């Protein structure tokens, strides 16, 4: 195999890689385990994630991306190289890549993403904004003059954008998403039950019984952790109503941001959105009741995209066909890709 193009969604919580004709070939946690004494990387991805909360003092397990941007360049560089080698070990040369970036990132943050990928030997890198990729992955035709509102609720950021004619008409990026919901659960359990739980326990509770809108039937989850006073193991059964109590404010904040962005959007595009509604993508869009909460707050129809957690990488995959058009200008040459490196 001589080589192939690839699309990368380098997310706060997970990294996904898409290859043409193969689909999503990598979908693993964006986690790295490091030996503190030797500074060697011990594990990456799913293997490192299994170590979260279970390491000795010698090991540190870390997420090298925070709120959608790189916080530890060296670890991200190693992580990207590891994932690309897993999918391209039989290739003679490394592929061209379309990489996703959150909305409203700085030029320095863009360059950090490019550099972390280029060190793996990639020949050409093009960037695409996550809301554009999410819209394409959700099946929205972004090249029409019709406005569409996409809200991508990821692990570290929520990116919302009105897309039209292949570009963004209005955009807002909020550092409030899946990991912040996990933190809210951890704080809630400590405050109400004096129970200290880990990030994985909070995440499991969120995906099992978490909600931002009342459920018709209660569901329950057993939280296991350490008592903050005695230091002894403790288990507490919590209900979905309690999850609603601690998560709804985060959901409301996102809904308010959507409202604020709509107020800044051109009236004709708002009319389009009023007719078609809002599309939710991102893994956190699966949280129960997010569509109902946003619909109630905005008075607009809201739909969760099919396979929402993979919309961004699938859309970036569709963006691969535009790499060869980056240098072409003229009528009819709308291009969702931002820049070539």
Automatic annotation (TrEMBL):
It is found in: Cytoplasm. InterPro entries: ATPase_NBD, MreB, MreB_MamK-like. One of its GO terms (molecular function) is ATP binding. Pfam families: MreB_Mbl. One of its GO terms (cellular component) is cytoplasm. Its main location: cytoplasm. ATP binds at residues 155-157. Keywords: ATP-binding, Cell shape, Cytoplasm, Nucleotide-binding. GO terms for biological process: cell morphogenesis; regulation of cell shape. It comes from the Bacteria. Belongs to the FtsA/MreB family. Forms polymers. PANTHER family: CELL SHAPE-DETERMINING PROTEIN MREB. Forms membrane-associated dynamic filaments that are essential for cell shape determination. Acts by regulating cell wall synthesis and cell elongation, and thus cell shape. A feedback loop between cell geometry and MreB localization may maintain elongated cell shape by targeting cell wall growth to regions of negative cell wall curvature. This is Cell shape-determining protein MreB. The gene is mreB.
């Amino acid at each position: 195999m001589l080589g192939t193009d690839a699309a990368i969604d380098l997310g706060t919580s997970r990294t996904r890689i898409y290859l043409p004709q193969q689909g999503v070939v990598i979908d693993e946690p964006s986690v790295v385990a490091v030996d503190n004494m030797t500074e060697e990387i011990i594990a990456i991805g799913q293997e490192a994630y299994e170590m979260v909360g279970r390491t000795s003092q010698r090991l540190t397990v870390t997420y090298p991306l925070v709120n959608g941007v790189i916080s530890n360049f060296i670890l991200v560089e190693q992580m990207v190289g590891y994932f690309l080698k897993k999918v391209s070990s039989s290739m003679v040369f490394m592929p061209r890549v379309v990489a996703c970036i959150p909305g409203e990132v700085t030029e320095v943050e863009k360059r950090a993403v490019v550099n972390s990928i280029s060190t793996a030997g990639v020949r050409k890198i093009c960037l695409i904004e996550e809301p554009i990729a999410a819209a394409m992955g959700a099946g929205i035709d972004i090249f029409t003059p019709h406005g569409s509102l996409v809200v991508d609720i990821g692990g570290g950021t929520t990116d919302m954008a009105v897309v039209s004619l292949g570009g963004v008409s209005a955009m807002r990026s909020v550092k409030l998403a899946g990991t912040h919901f996990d933190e809210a659960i951890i704080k809630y359990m400590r405050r109400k039950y004096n129970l200290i739980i880990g990030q994985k326990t909070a995440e499991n509770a969120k995906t099992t019984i978490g909600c931002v809108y009342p459920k018709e039937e209660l569901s329950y989850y057993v939280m296991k952790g350490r008592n903050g006073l005695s230091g002894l193991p403790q288990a507490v059964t919590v209900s979905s109503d309690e999850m609603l109590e601690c998560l709804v404010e985060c959901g409301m904040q996102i809904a308010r941001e959507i409202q604020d962005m709509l107020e800044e959007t051109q009236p004709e595009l708002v009319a389009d959105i009023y007719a078609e509604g809002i599309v939710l993508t991102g893994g956190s869009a699966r949280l129960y009741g997010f569509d109902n909460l946003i619909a109630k707050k905005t008075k607009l129809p809201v739909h969760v995209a099919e396979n929402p957690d993979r919309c961004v990488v699938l859309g970036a995959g569709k963006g691969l066909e535009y790499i060869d058009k980056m240098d072409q200008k003229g009528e009819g040459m709308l291009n969702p890709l931002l820049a070539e490196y």
